[in-house]
Amino acid sequence: MSEENQISRRDFIKNSTGAAAALSIPYIIPTSAFGSNDRVRVAVLGVNGRGQSHISGFNNLSNVEVACLCDPDNNIVQKRAKEFKETTGKTVKTENDLRKVFEDKSIDAVSIATPNHWHALATIWACQAGKDVYVEKPGSHNLHEGRKMVEAAKKYKRVVQHGVQLRSSEALKEAVKHLRDGLIGNVYMARGLVYKWRPDIGDKGTSPVPEGLNYDLWTGPAEMKPFSKNYVHYDWHWHWNYGNGDIGNQGIHETDMCMWGLGVESFPEKITSSGGKFLWNDAKETPEVLSSSFIYPKEKKIIEFEVRPWMTNSEDGVGIGNIFYGSEGYMVVKGYDFYETFLGKEKKPGPTRKAGGDHYKNFIDAVVARDPKLLNGPVETAHLSSGLAHLGNIAYRTGRALTFDPKKEKFVGDEEANKYLTRNYRSPYKLPEIV
């Protein structure tokens, strides 16, 4: 085993201080070597919402064992363990503290479905502990975190998959090939659409922390605020401290598809956003309506993105999805597994297909082979697609057009905007330096 595939107890404790350091971390956590009959032992972190799909997705794979469920809400994790027992007939280990999962040498990989503000730190800690990672979208809560995730995966030689399952769709892989091969001509614009039913969430104020919830762990690296049902368990999406609004929620599938289809592999140079809250006088902080433009002047390409929360028309049948515009036609992508094309001035129907794929299996295949190149949604795509959403949100929050340097990953001459690229991390949940 090379030194790059090892992590010392001293390094892990140094990078996860405080309470994390109190855990008994093994001196060296080895990289697993899988044989043809070995099963990959996976722990699912965060099991209230999306994590339920992670449990079933991995449990459906013959060479995977769902070995542990982890959530800071003990009520939730015990409920999921009971459901798991009823469904599979098997007893699954439970934990409340994800650091104990990283300490467990029997765990090969972790699947992260926590709130957004935990994604990057959990990914980096897992990489440092020798675990491979499947991380739910968005990969990061801010743009700086995304770069650190890329660096961590590379340094610790980990397989890190971003949970944008459309990347594993056979239909959409075919669609992107059509775009590359010139089916609709010069593809100059991609449009991302997120038209989802988002009702008034009210304002529940503050209240005592419910029994069974470790609120300190739930808050993690974010600023500690008095407990409110406005945050726990779903509506954290609409608060900047934990979430990123719908462009950083559902929208990551569409930002990812925009960049994939256009073939851009860097951030835009010009960003504008406008929007706001127009419907509900509730506790949400993020905009209900958001319109963003991302311009690539050198490539002569543009991404447009629309978030709408309520009653609205679809666009060529698309409410959740993408539209690509070219000099010879356009392509419509609906959801995660369907595309159709329309060619020429007459909009003559062209190739179309509906077919899915198994993103969880793709991850496990890469883990077993020890080859990140097999991943359909590698960590670099997590940084880009999540980062695009972050840039749109920053333009909205500053209220002005922004100029960005894609190489330095900094705004040009705008210190206020640059402050939004990272956050202050609460001890002991500090983002480690990757050197």
From TrEMBL:
Signal peptide: none annotated. Keywords: Oxidoreductase. Pfam families: GFO_IDH_MocA, GFO_IDH_MocA_C2. Residues 40-163 form the Gfo/Idh/MocA-like oxidoreductase N-terminal domain. Residues 206-263, 360-430 form the Gfo/Idh/MocA-like oxidoreductase bacterial type C-terminal domain. Its EC number is 1.1.1.369. The keyword Signal does not apply. GO terms for molecular function: nucleotide binding; oxidoreductase activity. This is Inositol 2-dehydrogenase/D-chiro-inositol 3-dehydrogenase. It comes from Dyadobacter helix.
